[in-house]
Design brief:
Aminopeptidase, 4-stranded mixed β-sheet
Length: about 220
């Protein structure tokens, strides 16, 4: 249908009414509470945070798709991943939830901020649409000022809620470094536009995957 006939929320929720992108357990709050009480790292790990007990209950609102992804990530020790979105041209990196509960925007870096910024930059600089000299803002934000990358919490965290919980969960629970790539200004490109979208992102995807070969 394209963006002209499709609202931004089309396809976002499952048949059961669950938003899969926001269905992972909130591990940030538990981590920050432990830090505030000087429990990290001796009593509370900051690199492999367990899933909260409430999230494992049979009546917990957890989609089968979410449980499948969790089991998949626990079975295979992924170290790098990308969460592909649409509707903007920018690469975001954790944390994507502001530490100050009531703030809608707040720079909230991880201890691995330098690595995340590098991973985001690798993708953004090789993306043809982002790196174009004719690049214009998709909507209101001009991400070219930041090299087309931004800390997720410093963009549009909704105060007191969760934005991209999958992004945080992978990092805090399984040590997988994940970024979110907003692939295109158009959230629902027409089929005729897909070859161009592929060309815009092909080299970025390859370079991003090559980063797994880098070590300390």
């Amino acid at each position: 249908q394209g963006s002209e006939l499709a609202g931004w929320a089309m396809g976002r929720w499952t048949y059961e009414g669950i938003d899969l992108n926001h269905n992972f357990a909130d591990l940030n709050t538990a981590l920050w509470d432990a830090e505030d009480n000087d429990l990290v790292p001796h009593e509370f790990p900051n690199h492999y945070i367990p899933i909260p007990e409430y999230y494992t209950f049979a009546n917990a609102t957890v989609a089968p798709e979410t449980r499948a992804v969790i089991a998949w990530m626990q079975r295979y020790p992924f170290v790098l991943s990308a969460n592909l979105h649409g509707g903007e041209l920018v690469v975001t990196y954790p944390f994507d939830m502001s530490r100050t509960y009531w703030k809608a925007q707040e720079l909230t870096p991880t201890p691995d901020d330098g690595v995340f910024r590098w991973l985001a930059t690798v993708y953004a600089t090789a993306n043809l649409a982002m790196a174009s000299g004719e690049r214009r803002p998709c909507h209101y934000d001009d991400f070219t000022r930041f090299g087309n990358i931004i800390n997720g919490a410093n963009w549009h965290t909704v105060a007191g809620s969760e934005w991209d919980t999958e992004l945080r969960w992978h990092y805090l629970h399984t040590n997988c470094f994940e970024i979110t790539v907003e692939l295109s200004c158009d959230k629902f490109p027409h089929a005729s536009e897909l070859p161009d979208e592929w060309e815009n992102n092909r080299e970025s995807l390859l370079l991003f995957m090559e980063q797994v070969a880098h070590g300390v």
